[in-house]
């Protein structure tokens, strides 16, 4: 007698093996998607850092430095540049949005919102006779802490 097919046992075994392979592949794809989302948020946070730093440092360079930094609290700072232009850095009440504005005419230079899971922690001014520095601390789920540092000599 000639056999031209698969037995039921062979089909069940092949389907079971295929199911196991598919479960592992789906698990790997879910992990890959989660990693991509995390990386996208980290990239967004780092781009925010670069935009904020560039905007403030551009003002530092064009005004030949910072005259003074005054932070009445950890969420508001006033920067007075050497050319007597004043700018304000403000963190929103939910600590997810930073705005950099000119208070005299409310001109907004930059507004940056952090992705979900990230918050601005504080703004810490450090000044001595020559060095003026502002550190903006950010905390996130995957990236941990990072600082935006603005220097003037």
Task: Describe the secondary structure blueprint for this structure.
Elements (H helix, E strand, L loop, with lengths): L7 H55 L3 E8 L2 E6 L4 E6 L5 E6 L4 E7 L4 E10 L4 E9 L3 E9 L1
Antiparallel strand pairs: 1-2, 2-3, 3-4, 4-5, 6-7, 7-8
What does this structure look like?
With 153 residues, the protein is of the alpha+beta class. Helices cover 36% and strands 40% of the residues. A five-stranded antiparallel β-sheet has the order 1-2-3-4-5, covered by helices on one side. A three-stranded antiparallel β-sheet has the order 6-7-8, with helices on one face. It is rod-shaped, with a radius of gyration of 27 Å. The chain starts with 7 loop residues before the first helix and ends with a strand.
